[in-house]
Specification:
The complex is a heterodimer of chains A (339) and B (291). With 339 residues, chain A is of the alpha/beta class. Chain A has 2 domains: 197 residues, HUPs (Rossmann fold), CATH 3.40.50; 122 residues, Rossmann fold (3-Layer(aba) Sandwich), CATH 3.40.50.1220. In chain A, 25% of the residues lie in helices and 30% in strands. In chain A, the strands form 4 sheets. A 7-stranded parallel sheet of chain A has the order 7-11-6-1-4-5-12, sandwiched between helices. In chain A, β16, α7 and β17 form a beta-alpha-beta unit. In chain A, α3 crosses α4 and α5 packs parallel to α8. The radius of gyration of chain A is 22 Å and the shape is globular. Chain B has one domain: HUPs (Rossmann fold, 3-Layer(aba) Sandwich), CATH 3.40.50.620. In chain B, the strands form 2 sheets. Chain B has a 9-stranded mixed sheet, with helices on both faces. In chain B, strands 2-3 form a two-stranded antiparallel ribbon. The model of chain B has no long low-confidence stretch (mean pLDDT 91). The chains are: A alpha/beta (339), B alpha/beta (291). Chains A and B meet through α3, α4, β7, β9 and β10 of A and α3, α4, β7, β8 and β9 of B. β18 of chain A pairs parallel with β13 of chain B, so a sheet runs across the interface.
Chain lengths: 339, 291
């Protein structure tokens, strides 16, 4: 009762990064409200998975093993999570804001008739004052998220229903091994108690998972292009620069809408959030939709032929000029002066 | 196979993607009321999937449902111009302040009124909130399966629908039983354009609330041309319980809103010359930013 629950997402038999990030956050939330941290992990052949989850601070690990649970399908996972939540009555329930978490959490919320906040970038324990009722709610989960195309930051609370549910954006919270970690308790979930025949209404016919070669999130150097790069062909220059610098290529929504790049490389509000050491923004105007995903970069170089581009406001260096002329010069210098 | 009963859930949204200078207030925040109201882009892509289904199953009926103020009927007319058959506006002051759960409750009631249906389509998310919650919440309320992030419907056959969906790290083809709800991903094809003949035919389609502002001769047209009638439902028509509506029916509350203020920080301007770029690169190397 009243504990913090984290849905732990699995990929190739291992917890995904965002789940460990939320466990780390969940641990500190649980400590603040004097609760235990529990996690639910569903898949097939997950024996031993609890070890890593204990390291990230879990007190109790609920494990469901069944061939119907891997790969992920909405209905069986939703039925189990909603069922376990009904039994355990958590105070807080957290999911990664991944393709899986955003598919699953709304069904759980609807099933339990509980509030859910999507894509949180910050979670804090705090009080909420309701003006109409003239009432203060203590120790609620304050759920912060960008809204309205990233033009506002909203703080959302769920004062009257439990659990307080949220999905958490990938990469914005730090994962950290818990220093007081200890071996906790493992609870085995009896999958058949929750998953009936109706939960198998959808089957997987084919699955093609692209290898996770692209690791934008953890890249120290990102060369990102916008609509101003001009064409798909011109994006090659960005790849050339990224290769010599040992970085990765990202793109703004405008560049992706124009077909210059693939969705997987989208940085910003509706893409991924990055915080590299160096961000080289090429032909990016700097709309908030994009900057919301990169404004924590340690250093920003903006290359744009518009001297008044909004991106400049975030930049440390601004080069006003054509991307196609500037990048070759950067590559040339770098090749000549480093080994 | 006989025609399908296809429902598209759509939302009219402020165009948060194109915030021009006119929409910025002097203090650097966005003036939300200055933004144009548009058909939510992924909902329009959902309509295209519906139209493609109808291309294959020609006897199908496409009903577009939207919840919002009376002016949201604009996207219903837009849908008719592009090939939809019917439009339903759900409007009531009591819906104001609804979060996703309250919204999905109302949409589920509307769908129950439109039942039996085969396929419910909606965009993955709306650009004013980006929550992606309403689709799955509706599916859960109706106890039907869902396929999210759909890029292409491959076929509907023998009470099954097969679709390809886009994941962050790949694609997946799923097959589910009807009725089913699909949310359509931005990587799906764009919607076909308005059809000139349909535009002529449906130009004066309107809801009962809009009728009072119409010219008398247009109102009279509705007597014979029933296809011009857009359906309009309020709380009473849906037999909705008020505790589940609007602010009181919304478990999530806003605690605070902070406007993002565009601030300027100091930056150094470099010319696109060899000299300046060499100097910049030298600095980066020296400070171990690269290398």
């Amino acid at each position: 009762m009243n504990n913090v629950f984290v849905y732990c997402e699995i990929e190739e038999g291992k917890p995904v990064d965002v789940s460990l990030e939320i466990l780390t956050k969940g641990r500190s939330l649980a400590d603040q409200i004097g609760a235990k941290l529990e996690t639910i992990v569903l898949g097939n052949n997950l024996n031993g998975i609890e070890k890593e989850l204990f390291e990230y601070g879990a007190d109790i690990v609920h494990v469901g093993n069944h061939s119907n649970l891997d790969p992920y399908l909405t209905l069986p996972h939703a039925a189990i999570i909603a069922g376990v939540f009904k039994n355990e009555k958590p105070r807080i329930g957290l999911f990664g804001a991944t393709s899986i978490g955003r598919d699953l959490a709304p069904r759980v919320s609807s099933n339990l008739k509980c509030g859910l906040t999507a894509d949180c970038t910050e979670l804090i324990i705090g009080d909420h004052f309701d003006k109409k009722l003239n009432k203060t709610y203590k120790d609620l989960l304050l759920q912060r998220r960008p809204a309205f195309g990233g033009n506002i930051i909203a703080t959302i609370v769920t004062p009257d229903t439990l659990p307080q549910l949220a999905t958490v954006r990938e990469g914005v919270m730090k994962k950290e091994i818990y220093k007081n970690a200890k071996k906790g308790k493992v609870v085995s979930i009896n999958v058949d108690d929750f998953v009936g025949a109706e939960a198998l209404a959808v089957q997987i016919i084919e699955r093609h998972i692209e290898k996770k070669e692209l690791n934008l999130k953890n890249s120290n150097i990102i060369v990102a292009g916008g609509y101003g790069v001009g064409s798909k062909k011109d994006f090659q220059l960005l790849y050339d620069l990224a290769e010599v610098l040992g970085g990765e290529v990202g793109a703004s929504r405008a560049a992706i809408d124009a077909g210059f790049e693939v969705h997987e490389r989208q940085i910003g509000q509706t893409g991924i959030t990055v915080r590299p050491k160096l961000y080289i923004a090429c032909g990016i105007s700097g709309q908030i939709q994009h900057t919301a995903g990169m404004d924590k970069s340690a250093m920003v170089i903006a290359i744009n032929n518009d001297p008044h581009a909004a991106i400049n406001k975030l930049a440390d260096y601004v080069i006003t000029g054509e991307v196609s002329k500037v990048i070759p010069k950067m590559i040339k210098y770098y090749k000549q002066h480093t080994k | 196979m006989k025609g399908l009963n296809i429902i598209v859930l759509a939302k009219q949204v402020p165009d948060t993607r194109n915030i021009g200078k006119d929409a910025m207030k002097a203090n650097g925040t966005v003036n939300r009321s200055a933004l144009a109201a548009i058909f939510n882009p992924e909902d329009l892509q959902a309509l295209e999937q519906a139209l493609r289904l109808k291309d294959q199953h020609v006897e199908s009926t496409i009903t577009v449902v939207t919840m919002g103020p009376v002016r949201a009927a604009n996207i219903l007319r837009d849908s008719l111009f592009r090939g939809a058959d019917k439009g339903v506006l759900i409007t009531d002051k009591k819906f104001a302040g609804s979060d996703t759960l309250a919204t999905s409750y109302v949409l589920s009631l509307a769908l129950k009124k439109l039942a039996p249906f085969d396929v419910v389509l909606c965009g993955r998310q709306a650009i004013d909130g980006d929550t992606a919650q309403v689709g799955p919440q509706v599916a859960e309320n109706l106890h039907i399966p869902q396929i999210t992030y759909v890029e292409e419907i491959i076929e509907v056959k023998d009470n099954y629908l097969t679709a390809r969906r886009r994941l962050s790290n790949g694609v997946e083809t799923l097959k589910g039983t009807l009725p089913i709800l699909l949310t359509v991903h931005g990587s799906a094809p764009e919607c076909r354009t308005q059809h000139a003949k349909r535009l002529m035919k449906y130009k004066h389609a309107c809801t009962p609330s809009e009728m009072s502002n119409e010219r008398e001769d247009y109102i009279l047209m509705h007597d014979t041309k029933h296809y011009l009638d857009l359906i309009e439902w309020n709380v009473g028509d849906l037999k909705a319980e008020e505790v589940y509506l609007g602010l009181s029916g919304s478990p999530t509350k806003v605690n605070a809103v902070t406007n993002i203020v565009f601030t300027t920080k100091e930056f150094r301007v470099m010319e696109p010359t060899d000299k300046d770029i060499d100097a910049l690169m030298a600095e980066l190397v020296e400070h171990h930013m690269v290398g």
